[in-house]
Amino acid sequence: MIAYLPEIYPDELVYSWFCRYYIHTGCITNTMAFQELLYNRCNNPSKEFIGHLNTVTAELIQRLFAIDDLIINHTMYPQYARFIPLQQKKKALYHIGYDFCDVHHLFAILPRTQSDSRLKYCPLCVQEDRKKHGEAYWHRKHQIRNMSICTKHKCLLVNSDITAKSEQSFTLNPAEITVNLQEPEYENNTLKVAFSEYMVAVFDAPINFESNIPISAVLYNAMKKTKYMKQSGKSRYTKRFVDDMQIFYKNIGIGSVASMSQVQRVLLQDRFDFSVVCQIAFFLNMGVDDLTVPTLTNEQIEQEQNSHYMKGRETIDWAVYDNETAPILEQIAYDIYTGIASETGRPERVSEKIIYRELGLPGHRLDNLPKCKTILAKYSESYQENWARRIIWAYNKLKSECSGKPFYWSDIRRISGVKKHNLEFVLPYISKHTDKKTAKAILKICQI
Ligand SMILES: [Zn+2]
Q: How far, in Å, is the centroid of ligand 1 from the Cα of 151?
Protein backbone atom coordinates (compact mmCIF):
# COMPACT_ATOMS: atom_id res chain seq x y z
CA MET A 1 0.00 0.00 0.00
CA ILE A 2 1.21 3.48 -0.79
CA ALA A 3 2.37 5.24 2.36
CA TYR A 4 4.07 8.39 1.26
CA LEU A 5 4.37 10.59 -1.81
CA PRO A 6 7.29 12.96 -2.29
CA GLU A 7 6.72 16.66 -2.82
CA ILE A 8 5.86 17.46 -6.44
CA TYR A 9 8.19 20.02 -8.06
CA PRO A 10 7.23 23.03 -10.20
CA ASP A 11 6.18 22.01 -13.71
CA GLU A 12 6.93 18.37 -12.94
CA LEU A 13 5.08 15.65 -14.84
CA VAL A 14 2.99 13.31 -12.69
CA TYR A 15 4.95 10.51 -14.37
CA SER A 16 8.18 12.03 -13.06
CA TRP A 17 6.69 12.30 -9.60
CA PHE A 18 5.83 8.58 -9.64
CA CYS A 19 9.35 7.83 -10.86
CA ARG A 20 10.73 9.58 -7.83
CA TYR A 21 8.25 7.75 -5.61
CA TYR A 22 9.74 4.56 -7.01
CA ILE A 23 13.30 5.41 -5.99
CA HIS A 24 12.45 7.20 -2.72
CA THR A 25 10.34 4.41 -1.26
CA GLY A 26 12.84 1.72 -2.07
CA CYS A 27 10.56 -0.35 -4.29
CA ILE A 28 12.89 -2.95 -5.65
CA THR A 29 11.16 -3.47 -8.96
CA ASN A 30 8.89 -1.52 -11.27
CA THR A 31 6.25 -4.17 -10.70
CA MET A 32 6.26 -3.42 -6.97
CA ALA A 33 5.83 0.29 -7.63
CA PHE A 34 3.03 -0.41 -10.10
CA GLN A 35 1.23 -2.61 -7.61
CA GLU A 36 1.26 0.22 -5.13
CA LEU A 37 0.20 2.91 -7.58
CA LEU A 38 -1.77 1.46 -10.45
CA TYR A 39 -5.15 -0.18 -10.80
CA ASN A 40 -3.95 -3.55 -12.04
CA ARG A 41 -0.95 -5.26 -13.56
CA CYS A 42 -2.11 -4.63 -17.16
CA ASN A 43 -1.88 -0.87 -16.65
CA ASN A 44 1.15 1.08 -17.68
CA PRO A 45 2.16 4.44 -16.22
CA SER A 46 1.07 7.40 -18.31
CA LYS A 47 3.90 9.69 -19.41
CA GLU A 48 1.69 12.66 -20.21
CA PHE A 49 -1.28 12.23 -17.87
CA ILE A 50 -2.02 10.42 -14.60
CA GLY A 51 -2.69 6.86 -15.62
CA HIS A 52 -5.14 4.39 -14.16
CA LEU A 53 -4.55 4.56 -10.40
CA ASN A 54 -5.86 2.20 -7.75
CA THR A 55 -8.45 3.50 -5.32
CA VAL A 56 -6.06 3.98 -2.42
CA THR A 57 -3.58 6.04 -4.44
CA ALA A 58 -6.36 8.03 -6.08
CA GLU A 59 -7.86 8.88 -2.68
CA LEU A 60 -4.49 9.84 -1.25
CA ILE A 61 -3.77 12.15 -4.18
CA GLN A 62 -7.23 13.63 -4.04
CA ARG A 63 -6.64 14.44 -0.38
CA LEU A 64 -3.34 16.14 -1.15
CA PHE A 65 -4.39 18.14 -4.22
CA ALA A 66 -7.35 19.66 -5.91
CA ILE A 67 -7.24 17.10 -8.70
CA ASP A 68 -8.06 19.67 -11.40
CA ASP A 69 -5.00 21.69 -10.35
CA LEU A 70 -2.81 18.61 -10.56
CA ILE A 71 -4.03 17.95 -14.11
CA ILE A 72 -3.66 21.55 -15.24
CA ASN A 73 -0.25 22.09 -13.64
CA HIS A 74 1.38 18.67 -13.86
CA THR A 75 0.11 16.88 -16.98
CA MET A 76 0.10 17.70 -20.69
CA TYR A 77 -3.60 18.57 -20.50
CA PRO A 78 -2.96 22.26 -21.41
CA GLN A 79 -1.39 21.11 -24.67
CA TYR A 80 -4.12 18.73 -25.79
CA ALA A 81 -7.17 20.47 -24.35
CA ARG A 82 -6.25 24.14 -24.81
CA PHE A 83 -8.25 24.72 -27.98
CA ILE A 84 -10.93 22.03 -27.91
CA PRO A 85 -14.60 23.05 -27.48
CA LEU A 86 -15.62 23.98 -23.93
CA GLN A 87 -17.79 20.96 -23.10
CA GLN A 88 -15.15 18.57 -24.35
CA LYS A 89 -12.52 20.42 -22.32
CA LYS A 90 -14.55 20.03 -19.11
CA LYS A 91 -15.35 16.42 -19.85
CA ALA A 92 -11.67 15.61 -20.45
CA LEU A 93 -10.67 17.24 -17.16
CA TYR A 94 -13.18 15.13 -15.29
CA HIS A 95 -12.30 11.83 -16.96
CA ILE A 96 -8.54 12.23 -16.56
CA GLY A 97 -8.89 12.94 -12.84
CA TYR A 98 -11.75 10.71 -11.76
CA ASP A 99 -12.26 7.70 -13.94
CA PHE A 100 -8.88 7.48 -15.63
CA CYS A 101 -10.32 6.63 -19.03
CA ASP A 102 -8.06 6.26 -22.04
CA VAL A 103 -7.13 9.81 -23.07
CA HIS A 104 -7.39 8.85 -26.74
CA HIS A 105 -11.17 8.96 -26.24
CA LEU A 106 -10.97 12.52 -24.95
CA PHE A 107 -9.00 14.37 -27.61
CA ALA A 108 -6.83 13.76 -30.64
CA ILE A 109 -3.31 12.59 -29.76
CA LEU A 110 -1.38 12.73 -33.00
CA PRO A 111 1.41 10.30 -33.81
CA ARG A 112 4.84 11.59 -32.81
CA THR A 113 7.48 12.71 -35.23
CA GLN A 114 11.10 11.70 -34.76
CA SER A 115 11.98 14.92 -32.92
CA ASP A 116 9.25 14.35 -30.33
CA SER A 117 9.74 10.65 -29.84
CA ARG A 118 11.78 10.82 -26.60
CA LEU A 119 11.43 12.49 -23.22
CA LYS A 120 13.52 15.65 -23.41
CA TYR A 121 15.56 17.50 -20.80
CA CYS A 122 17.65 20.64 -20.40
CA PRO A 123 21.20 20.10 -19.08
CA LEU A 124 21.13 23.41 -17.19
CA CYS A 125 17.76 22.69 -15.57
CA VAL A 126 19.22 19.34 -14.47
CA GLN A 127 22.09 21.16 -12.75
CA GLU A 128 19.75 23.66 -11.12
CA ASP A 129 17.30 21.01 -9.97
CA ARG A 130 20.07 18.95 -8.44
CA LYS A 131 21.33 21.99 -6.57
CA LYS A 132 17.91 23.05 -5.38
CA HIS A 133 16.10 19.74 -4.86
CA GLY A 134 18.92 17.24 -4.75
CA GLU A 135 17.68 15.45 -7.88
CA ALA A 136 16.69 16.00 -11.48
CA TYR A 137 13.11 15.55 -12.72
CA TRP A 138 11.13 15.52 -15.97
CA HIS A 139 9.79 18.98 -16.78
CA ARG A 140 6.47 19.28 -18.53
CA LYS A 141 7.23 22.23 -20.76
CA HIS A 142 10.25 20.46 -22.24
CA GLN A 143 7.85 17.80 -23.54
CA ILE A 144 5.62 20.14 -25.56
CA ARG A 145 5.46 18.95 -29.17
CA ASN A 146 7.86 20.83 -31.42
CA MET A 147 9.70 22.23 -28.42
CA SER A 148 13.46 21.96 -28.87
CA ILE A 149 14.63 24.72 -26.52
CA CYS A 150 14.57 25.31 -22.80
CA THR A 151 13.13 28.81 -22.86
CA LYS A 152 14.54 29.52 -19.40
CA HIS A 153 18.14 28.86 -20.42
CA LYS A 154 17.87 29.35 -24.21
CA CYS A 155 19.71 26.12 -24.77
CA LEU A 156 18.82 23.06 -26.79
CA LEU A 157 16.88 20.28 -25.13
CA VAL A 158 18.50 16.88 -25.17
CA ASN A 159 16.65 13.72 -26.18
CA SER A 160 16.88 11.02 -23.51
CA ASP A 161 16.75 7.30 -24.29
CA ILE A 162 13.25 7.11 -22.84
CA THR A 163 10.35 6.93 -25.27
CA ALA A 164 7.76 9.67 -24.86
CA LYS A 165 4.99 7.19 -25.67
CA SER A 166 3.12 5.55 -22.82
CA GLU A 167 1.87 2.57 -24.80
CA GLN A 168 3.92 -0.60 -24.40
CA SER A 169 6.12 1.16 -21.86
CA PHE A 170 6.10 -0.56 -18.51
CA THR A 171 8.91 1.12 -16.65
CA LEU A 172 9.43 4.12 -14.43
CA ASN A 173 12.52 5.95 -15.60
CA PRO A 174 13.55 8.68 -13.16
CA ALA A 175 15.31 11.61 -14.83
CA GLU A 176 17.95 11.57 -12.10
CA ILE A 177 19.33 8.22 -13.22
CA THR A 178 18.55 8.59 -16.92
CA VAL A 179 20.04 11.90 -17.99
CA ASN A 180 23.63 12.27 -19.17
CA LEU A 181 25.12 15.54 -18.14
CA GLN A 182 26.60 17.39 -21.06
CA GLU A 183 27.64 20.87 -22.09
CA PRO A 184 24.64 22.94 -23.13
CA GLU A 185 24.37 24.09 -26.74
CA TYR A 186 22.80 27.48 -27.14
CA GLU A 187 20.21 28.39 -29.77
CA ASN A 188 21.14 31.43 -31.85
CA ASN A 189 18.07 31.63 -34.01
CA THR A 190 16.08 34.40 -32.32
CA LEU A 191 12.91 33.54 -34.23
CA LYS A 192 13.08 29.96 -33.04
CA VAL A 193 13.54 31.14 -29.47
CA ALA A 194 10.64 33.57 -29.88
CA PHE A 195 8.38 30.82 -31.27
CA SER A 196 9.33 28.49 -28.40
CA GLU A 197 8.63 31.23 -25.85
CA TYR A 198 5.29 31.82 -27.53
CA MET A 199 4.36 28.14 -27.21
CA VAL A 200 5.36 28.12 -23.54
CA ALA A 201 3.34 31.27 -22.83
CA VAL A 202 0.27 29.77 -24.54
CA PHE A 203 0.79 26.49 -22.67
CA ASP A 204 1.07 28.31 -19.32
CA ALA A 205 -1.80 30.76 -19.82
CA PRO A 206 -4.81 30.12 -17.54
CA ILE A 207 -7.33 27.81 -19.20
CA ASN A 208 -10.63 29.46 -19.83
CA PHE A 209 -13.53 27.31 -18.60
CA GLU A 210 -16.16 29.97 -19.24
CA SER A 211 -15.92 31.14 -22.81
CA ASN A 212 -16.74 28.94 -25.76
CA ILE A 213 -15.40 30.93 -28.68
CA PRO A 214 -14.25 28.46 -31.36
CA ILE A 215 -10.55 28.69 -32.13
CA SER A 216 -11.47 28.69 -35.84
CA ALA A 217 -13.32 31.99 -35.28
CA VAL A 218 -10.38 33.46 -33.38
CA LEU A 219 -7.98 32.61 -36.21
CA TYR A 220 -10.43 33.73 -38.88
CA ASN A 221 -10.69 37.10 -37.23
CA ALA A 222 -6.91 37.48 -37.03
CA MET A 223 -6.56 36.49 -40.66
CA LYS A 224 -9.13 39.04 -41.71
CA LYS A 225 -6.69 41.89 -41.52
CA THR A 226 -4.15 40.14 -43.72
CA LYS A 227 -3.54 39.52 -47.40
CA TYR A 228 -4.74 35.96 -46.91
CA MET A 229 -8.38 36.90 -46.91
CA LYS A 230 -10.59 38.71 -49.37
CA GLN A 231 -11.82 42.08 -48.11
CA SER A 232 -15.37 40.73 -48.06
CA GLY A 233 -14.26 38.04 -45.60
CA LYS A 234 -16.05 35.53 -47.77
CA SER A 235 -13.06 33.50 -48.77
CA ARG A 236 -9.48 33.09 -47.75
CA TYR A 237 -6.41 32.09 -49.69
CA THR A 238 -5.56 29.06 -47.64
CA LYS A 239 -3.03 27.61 -50.06
CA ARG A 240 -1.05 30.86 -50.27
CA PHE A 241 -1.24 31.16 -46.51
CA VAL A 242 0.05 27.64 -45.87
CA ASP A 243 2.78 27.98 -48.51
CA ASP A 244 4.10 31.17 -46.85
CA MET A 245 3.76 29.72 -43.38
CA GLN A 246 5.61 26.55 -44.32
CA ILE A 247 8.51 28.53 -45.78
CA PHE A 248 8.63 30.61 -42.59
CA TYR A 249 8.83 27.56 -40.28
CA LYS A 250 11.16 25.59 -42.52
CA ASN A 251 13.56 28.55 -42.32
CA ILE A 252 13.26 28.60 -38.54
CA GLY A 253 13.89 24.86 -38.54
CA ILE A 254 11.17 23.49 -36.28
CA GLY A 255 10.71 19.73 -36.00
CA SER A 256 7.27 19.38 -37.51
CA VAL A 257 5.83 22.04 -39.81
CA ALA A 258 2.02 21.98 -40.06
CA SER A 259 0.77 20.44 -43.29
CA MET A 260 -1.91 21.80 -45.59
CA SER A 261 -4.54 19.41 -44.30
CA GLN A 262 -3.65 20.05 -40.65
CA VAL A 263 -4.09 23.80 -41.14
CA GLN A 264 -7.25 23.31 -43.17
CA ARG A 265 -8.81 21.14 -40.48
CA VAL A 266 -8.05 23.67 -37.74
CA LEU A 267 -9.53 26.48 -39.84
CA LEU A 268 -12.64 24.40 -40.50
CA GLN A 269 -13.15 23.64 -36.81
CA ASP A 270 -12.48 19.96 -37.26
CA ARG A 271 -9.20 19.72 -35.31
CA PHE A 272 -7.66 21.71 -32.48
CA ASP A 273 -4.01 20.70 -32.45
CA PHE A 274 -1.90 22.85 -30.13
CA SER A 275 1.20 23.00 -32.30
CA VAL A 276 -0.76 23.78 -35.48
CA VAL A 277 -2.76 26.55 -33.78
CA CYS A 278 0.43 28.04 -32.30
CA GLN A 279 2.12 27.97 -35.70
CA ILE A 280 -0.81 29.75 -37.35
CA ALA A 281 -1.17 32.32 -34.57
CA PHE A 282 2.52 33.14 -34.23
CA PHE A 283 2.83 33.49 -38.00
CA LEU A 284 -0.13 35.90 -37.92
CA ASN A 285 1.59 37.90 -35.17
CA MET A 286 -1.18 37.29 -32.70
CA GLY A 287 -0.50 38.15 -29.06
CA VAL A 288 -0.79 35.35 -26.50
CA ASP A 289 -3.88 36.97 -24.98
CA ASP A 290 -5.54 37.30 -28.39
CA LEU A 291 -5.28 33.55 -28.62
CA THR A 292 -5.98 32.42 -25.05
CA VAL A 293 -8.52 35.03 -23.88
CA PRO A 294 -10.12 36.14 -27.14
CA THR A 295 -12.87 38.72 -27.12
CA LEU A 296 -15.09 38.32 -30.16
CA THR A 297 -18.60 39.57 -30.58
CA ASN A 298 -21.39 37.17 -31.51
CA GLU A 299 -21.47 38.79 -34.95
CA GLN A 300 -17.79 38.08 -35.44
CA ILE A 301 -18.23 34.46 -34.42
CA GLU A 302 -21.23 34.10 -36.69
CA GLN A 303 -19.39 35.62 -39.62
CA GLU A 304 -16.75 32.92 -39.39
CA GLN A 305 -19.32 30.16 -39.04
CA ASN A 306 -21.05 31.45 -42.16
CA SER A 307 -17.81 31.58 -44.11
CA HIS A 308 -17.35 27.84 -44.49
CA TYR A 309 -19.11 24.56 -44.43
CA MET A 310 -20.51 23.57 -41.05
CA LYS A 311 -22.23 20.39 -40.04
CA GLY A 312 -25.99 20.79 -40.13
CA ARG A 313 -25.89 23.93 -42.23
CA GLU A 314 -28.72 24.02 -44.78
CA THR A 315 -27.36 26.20 -47.53
CA ILE A 316 -23.89 25.95 -48.99
CA ASP A 317 -22.51 28.08 -51.79
CA TRP A 318 -21.06 25.19 -53.79
CA ALA A 319 -19.12 27.31 -56.28
CA VAL A 320 -17.32 29.22 -53.51
CA TYR A 321 -16.74 26.01 -51.61
CA ASP A 322 -15.33 24.30 -54.71
CA ASN A 323 -13.03 27.24 -55.50
CA GLU A 324 -11.70 27.33 -51.95
CA THR A 325 -11.17 23.63 -51.59
CA ALA A 326 -9.63 22.91 -55.02
CA PRO A 327 -6.13 24.39 -54.41
CA ILE A 328 -5.96 22.74 -51.01
CA LEU A 329 -6.98 19.39 -52.41
CA GLU A 330 -4.42 19.78 -55.20
CA GLN A 331 -1.64 20.29 -52.64
CA ILE A 332 -2.73 17.39 -50.46
CA ALA A 333 -3.06 15.06 -53.47
CA TYR A 334 0.34 16.12 -54.80
CA ASP A 335 2.01 15.52 -51.43
CA ILE A 336 0.50 12.04 -51.16
CA TYR A 337 1.27 11.13 -54.79
CA THR A 338 4.90 12.21 -54.66
CA GLY A 339 5.57 10.90 -51.15
CA ILE A 340 6.13 14.31 -49.52
CA ALA A 341 3.27 13.53 -47.15
CA SER A 342 4.69 10.25 -45.89
CA GLU A 343 7.44 10.03 -43.29
CA THR A 344 9.53 7.68 -45.40
CA GLY A 345 8.96 9.61 -48.65
CA ARG A 346 7.20 6.67 -50.28
CA PRO A 347 4.76 7.68 -53.05
CA GLU A 348 1.25 6.64 -52.10
CA ARG A 349 -1.98 6.14 -53.97
CA VAL A 350 -4.37 9.10 -53.81
CA SER A 351 -7.70 7.50 -52.96
CA GLU A 352 -11.02 9.23 -52.43
CA LYS A 353 -11.06 7.81 -48.93
CA ILE A 354 -7.77 9.49 -47.98
CA ILE A 355 -8.88 12.80 -49.49
CA TYR A 356 -12.13 12.72 -47.53
CA ARG A 357 -10.18 11.99 -44.38
CA GLU A 358 -7.47 14.61 -44.93
CA LEU A 359 -9.93 17.35 -45.79
CA GLY A 360 -12.38 16.28 -43.10
CA LEU A 361 -15.20 16.19 -45.66
CA PRO A 362 -18.57 14.59 -45.05
CA GLY A 363 -19.52 11.64 -47.31
CA HIS A 364 -20.35 12.27 -50.99
CA ARG A 365 -19.36 15.91 -50.67
CA LEU A 366 -17.06 15.74 -53.69
CA ASP A 367 -20.05 14.98 -55.94
CA ASN A 368 -20.95 18.66 -55.67
CA LEU A 369 -17.45 19.95 -56.28
CA PRO A 370 -16.53 19.61 -59.98
CA LYS A 371 -13.12 21.30 -59.75
CA CYS A 372 -12.10 19.06 -56.90
CA LYS A 373 -13.37 16.02 -58.77
CA THR A 374 -11.19 16.89 -61.78
CA ILE A 375 -8.09 17.20 -59.61
CA LEU A 376 -8.79 13.91 -57.93
CA ALA A 377 -9.20 12.23 -61.33
CA LYS A 378 -5.83 13.62 -62.42
CA TYR A 379 -4.07 11.86 -59.53
CA SER A 380 -6.03 8.62 -59.61
CA GLU A 381 -4.19 5.41 -60.49
CA SER A 382 -4.60 1.67 -60.10
CA TYR A 383 -2.89 -0.19 -57.28
CA GLN A 384 -0.58 -1.79 -59.86
CA GLU A 385 0.57 1.55 -61.17
CA ASN A 386 1.19 2.83 -57.66
CA TRP A 387 3.20 -0.31 -56.84
CA ALA A 388 5.33 0.35 -59.92
CA ARG A 389 6.04 3.91 -58.74
CA ARG A 390 6.89 2.62 -55.28
CA ILE A 391 9.34 0.09 -56.75
CA ILE A 392 11.04 2.83 -58.79
CA TRP A 393 11.21 5.03 -55.71
CA ALA A 394 12.67 2.18 -53.63
CA TYR A 395 15.22 1.38 -56.34
CA ASN A 396 16.40 5.00 -56.55
CA LYS A 397 16.53 5.33 -52.77
CA LEU A 398 18.59 2.16 -52.35
CA LYS A 399 20.84 3.12 -55.22
CA SER A 400 21.74 6.45 -53.62
CA GLU A 401 22.00 5.03 -50.08
CA CYS A 402 24.08 1.95 -50.94
CA SER A 403 26.52 4.03 -53.00
CA GLY A 404 27.75 1.26 -55.26
CA LYS A 405 27.21 -1.68 -52.89
CA PRO A 406 24.79 -4.32 -54.16
CA PHE A 407 21.20 -4.51 -53.02
CA TYR A 408 18.52 -7.02 -53.84
CA TRP A 409 14.93 -7.55 -54.85
CA SER A 410 14.14 -8.39 -51.21
CA ASP A 411 15.41 -4.92 -50.16
CA ILE A 412 13.20 -3.28 -52.76
CA ARG A 413 10.23 -5.33 -51.60
CA ARG A 414 10.85 -4.46 -47.97
CA ILE A 415 10.82 -0.70 -48.37
CA SER A 416 8.33 -0.47 -51.23
CA GLY A 417 5.86 -2.77 -49.48
CA VAL A 418 5.05 -4.49 -52.79
CA LYS A 419 4.35 -8.20 -52.42
CA LYS A 420 6.25 -10.78 -54.46
CA HIS A 421 3.15 -12.26 -56.09
CA ASN A 422 2.09 -8.83 -57.36
CA LEU A 423 5.25 -8.27 -59.33
CA GLU A 424 3.93 -9.57 -62.64
CA PHE A 425 1.05 -7.04 -62.61
CA VAL A 426 3.43 -4.20 -61.87
CA LEU A 427 6.07 -4.70 -64.52
CA PRO A 428 4.12 -3.22 -67.46
CA TYR A 429 3.99 0.11 -65.62
CA ILE A 430 7.67 0.40 -64.70
CA SER A 431 8.80 1.85 -68.01
CA LYS A 432 5.90 4.32 -67.98
CA HIS A 433 7.28 6.07 -64.92
CA THR A 434 11.02 5.98 -65.39
CA ASP A 435 13.73 6.14 -68.03
CA LYS A 436 14.79 3.10 -70.05
CA LYS A 437 18.06 2.57 -68.21
CA THR A 438 16.45 2.52 -64.77
CA ALA A 439 13.61 0.30 -65.98
CA LYS A 440 16.12 -2.16 -67.36
CA ALA A 441 18.12 -2.18 -64.13
CA ILE A 442 14.97 -2.77 -62.09
CA LEU A 443 13.87 -5.65 -64.31
CA LYS A 444 17.31 -7.16 -63.98
CA ILE A 445 17.26 -6.96 -60.20
CA CYS A 446 13.86 -8.65 -60.22
CA GLN A 447 15.56 -11.39 -62.30
CA ILE A 448 13.12 -11.16 -65.15
ZN1 LIG B 1 16.73 24.85 -18.70
A: 7
Gap from CA of 233 to ligand 1 centroid (Å): 43
In angstroms, the Cα distances linking 153 to 54, 73, 79, 125 are: 38, 21, 21, 8
Q: How far is the CA of 254 from the centre of ligand 1 (A)?
A: 18
Q: Are 236 and 221 in contact (CB under 8 A)?
A: no
pLDDT digits (tens, 9 = 90+) for 85-126: 999 999 999 999 887 778 888 888 888 888 899 999 999 999
In the reported structure, the alpha carbon of residue 216 is separated from the centroid of ligand 1 by a whole-number distance in angstroms of 33
CA 44 to chain centre: 22
What letter does residue 345 receive in the DSSP assignment? Answer: -
Query: Over the stretch 396-414, which tens digit does the pLDDT of each residue have?
Result: 999 998 888 889 999 999 9
Residue 134, number of CB atoms within 10 A of its CB:
8
What residue segments make up the domains of the chain, in order of their start? 14-105, 114-190, 309-380, 383-445
Residues linked to residue 159 through DSSP beta bridges, in sequence order: 120
Residue 43, burial from CB neighbour count under 10 angstroms (0-12, 13-18, 19+): middle
d(CA 44, CA 318): 49
CA of 129 to the centre of ligand 1 (A): 10
Count Cα neighbours of 390 within 13 Å in the Cβ-side half-sphere. Answer: 27
Beta bridge partners of 424: none
Phi, psi (5° rounding) for residue 149? -130, 145
CA of 142 to the centre of ligand 1 (A): 9
**Cβ contact 19:174 at 8 Å:** yes
